[in-house]
Amino acid sequence: MSILEDSKTRVNESRAARMKEERALLSPEDKDALIRKFHPDYKKEAYRTIQIGPNQGEQTVHELANLLEGKSPIASEAVSLSPQHQVDLLIIGGGGAGATAALTAKAAGANVLLATKLRLGDSNTVMAEGGMQVAVSAEDSPVRHFLDSLRGGYMKNDPALLKTLVEEGPEVAKWLMDIGVLFDREADGNLSIRGGGGSSKPRLLRCKDYTGLELMRVLKDCVLNEQVELLEFSPIVELLTDGEGACTGAVLKNLDNNQFIVVQAKAVILATGGIGRLHIQGFPTSNHYGATADGLPIAYRAGAKLTLQDTFQYHPTGAVYPEPMAGILVTEAIRSVGAQLVNVKGERFINEMETRDAVASAVIRECAEGRGVETSAGRRGVWLDMPMVDIVNAEGTLAHRFPNMVRQFSRYQIDIQKEPVLVYPTLHYQNGGIQINVDGESTVRNLFVAGEASGGIHGRNRLMGNSLLDIIVYGRRAGRAASKRATEIALGKLTLAHLDQFREAQKKAGVESKTVSPMLFPDYVKKN
Amino acid sequence: MSHSDSQSSLIRIEVDGAEHPVPEGITVIQAMWHLGRPTIHGVGCLGGVCGACPITYRLPDQPASKTGLACQTAVREGMAITFIPSDSSKKAIALLPKEAPTQKTLFQYYPETRRCTACRACTSVCPQEIDVMGGVRAAINGELATVAEKFTTCVMCGLCAAVCEVQIKPHRVGMYARRLTGAFYPKEATSLLHRIEEVRSGKYDAEWRELLSGDLSALAHDRVM
Ligand SMILES: Cc1cc2nc3c(=O)[nH]c(=O)nc-3n(C[C@H](O)[C@H](O)[C@H](O)COP(=O)(O)OP(=O)(O)OC[C@H]3O[C@@H](n4cnc5c(N)ncnc54)[C@H](O)[C@@H]3O)c2cc1C
Ligand code: SF4
Ligand code: SF4
Ligand code: FES
Questions:
Q1: A315 flagged as catalytic
Q2: In the annotation, is A458 catalytic?
Q3: B121: left (phi over 0), alpha (psi -120 to 50) or beta
Q4: Closest partner CB to B225 (pick from A189, A200, A411)
Q5: By C-alpha distance, which of A387, A398, A379 is closest to A326?
Q6: Helix A356-368, helix A28-38: angle, nearest 10
Q7: Residue B223: per-residue pLDDT
Q8: Among candidates A238, A263, A299, A243, which has minimal Cα distance to A493?
Q9: CA distances from A77 to A81, A436, B195 (A)
């Protein structure tokens, strides 16, 4: 039949030989050269200089720069700032970081309001498949976890943030288990662990390939049980400040009636998650519908500094075919148990356990140099040899360990136990974000940030499994620190003075933005 | 990204009783975008795990209606689609007990579970192909670990509860059984507890001090793999 079928046959035929092939990791020099040549982070045309605000003069991608310099949806004069809600703590974002912060703050006695864009739990957290890194085995240690993550992050991680992350990992895993998270266990009761790209020891805790779903289900259940006050379908559109640089609340928008909701709070925790739906450089994404970087422009206008805002993670294996699945993640764990990447000629071209940036670059190279496979919809990709997993391990491994993957493809009549699938890098994670300290506080007083919206922990490249850990560790820390802050201060004045300053800066720099930010939703709806 | 309407051929679908042409090969949610309908309620992850997008649909020549997730279901010729409100965040409270659960613990919060008539409706609508009724039966028999195992892949879409004639909430029973099983796991994770103790007792402090006082960048290429 087609070139596609032809090439698939070559994958099947070359399998026996490939299985015997040992492939060394790239030398640091070769890896560096590969990334510089093919990784999207190094594509100069995709970047520009930020013209105003705390990171003025630094670089980021056009898509994000436009939002950072964008216009507020609020005209200062047009909203009354008399608050409908007065709380100790306003938490924004109903993913893993926000839910964890809410639970911690509630337990600390704070009066909490949690506002989120869609429903509680609609998030990137619920989608996480591979697992959560915690150094639990005897041959492993938090120090080793630290070093792996630091190397993975190109030594750009904030060491204090990273040390706290790895050190609190074991404790946080215990906390999750105590509230009822069911990680996979060994027969002796120990946590079952698996390896991941860039990690020197296996340390991925997981619940099949539904780790994020498991975490989110339990966290959501706890938030509801603890009766945390909730505002769903109410995204933040602007922060409020006291005019002297401290955060004092936020303006939300009720999506059902388009009315603004003004919340006065002693402290605010932003946990709005990632950026995938900006489709940076035209990439498809693995992210949820609401992953539009909202926290970034909002915090930026209030004066918060960003860090590493120029680096993104393109997960090497996003689905390419069938078309409705384009961008959907094929978990890295599949590679860590033996699935190989194979080009159109049936050849392997990279050690699958390199860090994500290197593997993604290698896939892009294969396609750019004509060794990719093209689909009828015009997408390109390489093969991920799924049936190998059952061959290398045991019959039924895919079905048992990756039920989500098997089900998703089977909905389109693709049996991954029998055939390889096409993959290409998909926009997956924002490595940087809003700069925080170990308490999760940003450079704006009383504005805390937790989870993917923050930056610094992961340096220039996050290792697999470190984000689920991040959201729990820093969700708890931000929740704790912010509720403590709330006991020390009174409610502050509500102003939009920071917006006036921002507009002033726009004018001075001659920045005329047509973009309104936050974006809230990607622009998929056809205008008829 | 949202729809590939370039060369692909059009098919007809029915939404709320009205017929519309949409491109072949897209999902039901993408079809809504194509029709100019913004989606806010009824969409979340777009990846088949959040349960925000349950639908029922009928296909021509097939009398029985089917259920699915709108983000995971491709449109088909003649498909008539109805959106179902997803499971709400308002729910009864089910707290973890202080002591290890007994057979009764589940029924304290979900007494109606015992009324199951074994009609199998829940199983037949589950988009995750869970043996929902089997899970409910196991719950009635007090086999918590079995219930937990059966609901591992539940996306909490609520379709099972929506069709239960005796108002059982199988997914909530499953969730509670999972949490009980996790929180009262019969065997301890000894390595984890040991590691927590090591960190607390300062076992790594000297190593940290040495590491962090030195030049971290010197470690950049020193591979441990
Ligand atoms: C497919 C996939 C697989 C992954 N697998 C793994 C893995 O195996 N291991 C790992 O460690 N990490 C993984 N990750 C990354 C990890 O899941 C995320 O980085 C992490 O869960 C982010 O958590 P969060 O709470 O910061 O953000 P999210 O979970 O995305 O939550 C953000 C919340 O904020 C809300 N929000 C957004 N904007 C606004 C607004 N304007 N107002 C109010 N609310 C708003 C969103 O609706 C959402 O509820 C994966 C990510 C994806 C997408
Ligand atoms: S068990 Fe019920 S709530 Fe869970 S996925 Fe199946 S139908 Fe949906
Ligand atoms: S639908 Fe209700 S009554 Fe019927 S089998 Fe399921 S739980 Fe039992
Ligand atoms: S949008 Fe999450 S399951 Fe469909």
A1: yes
A2: no
A3: alpha
A4: A200
A5: A379
A6: 60
A7: 47
A8: A243
A9: 10, 32, 56
